[in-house]
Amino acid sequence: MIRSFFPIIASICFILFFGLLSILFFRLFNKVWWKKRWVRKVAWSLPLFGISSVLLWGIGEYNAWDILVYPGAFGGMLSFILEFCLILSLPFSGILHFTNSMIEKFSRSAREKDSEIDHHRRKILQSTAAAIPLITLSAGTAGVVRALTNVNVYKRPITFKNLPDDLNGLKILHLSDIHLRHYVTLSDVEKILEDAEMFNPDLVMMTGDISDEMHLLPDLIRMVEQLKPRLGTFATLGNHEYFRGVEKAIASYERSNTPLFIDKAAELQIGNSTLLIGGIDDPRRMGAKDYSFFKTTIDKMLVDETSPDFRILMSHRPDALDYASEVGIDLTLAGHTHGGQIGFGGRSVFESYFPDRYLWGEYTRGKSKLYTSSGAGHWFPFRLGCPAEAPVIELVKA
Q1: Which CATH code, of 3.60.21.10, 3.40.50.300, 3.90.79.10, 3.40.50.150, is assigned to 155-397?
Q2: What is the C-alpha separation between 361 and 355, in angstroms, rounded?
């Protein structure tokens, strides 16, 4: 129960904090705007709207009324994003306001001050100051809207020098971080699978955080199995399965035809080649990397292997690449990061700050490769330049 309501409590705290901070920034950096009554009303109404929406979300959550949960959660997140955009933009607008006031104050003469050139200069500064928050607010709104658009299902080739000929062209539908609940429904999953069907995947691999509503997980698994990939469907756990009820998640997989790999692996014979498919447990903790955890789980997974020709690891967290590369794992499929939910040019904008966290896309370490999916869903409805995705990974011999 506490875990279920933690996002609601946290959302109220964040909305209140950022709302008050944006009001403070208005008063400190944009005193000219703050004198306008409608600006003050908008500034105060934004956190009030957000908190009211989150309370609506909480009432719906407590009573299992989705008709309140969806608009409440959406309104709360929209309010938070707009507040955050204001906090980013208002200091820059304040600088322009200050610059404009200094120009007016220190004009060389009254004649220059009233000149047409000076008038145009002040207009440009004033317009730019207004444009900055408008642009950021528009980008924030667009990010929320894009979070609700279709998932990007596409073919993603990854090349390997050591790929056996029998595995050349093998296609894997990678599903991760669907977070089936508020923002992603079973009908959305059905659309993803319809789009994936045209690629005729040979395998489906699910790398955790698949459902935040455990009673919906069996339906999702059945839908995925209806794709009938020739080599089967496989899954592993993420941290949200633990948050939402790991026993129920495990039971759902046990009643299905989809094996759940927790520090386990299986070997498939494809032509004259042996393919190992394995999955590891999730550390459940947030924060710093835990190299020893991944070493223990991967070693346990590989204990019964018989020198396969190619190895694929399912890990919810991309951090597994560090040790996977040391023991000869050829390909790791992961998720968890959501790509930071803001990207540019196919990479997370946070890549330069966290280069060793493998936030989104393809990575190489030694002879081992990793693909981190940005996820097919989200528990926080905002994406900008980092679309939700369900890539069909194609193994290609270099």
Answers
A1: 3.60.21.10
A2: 12
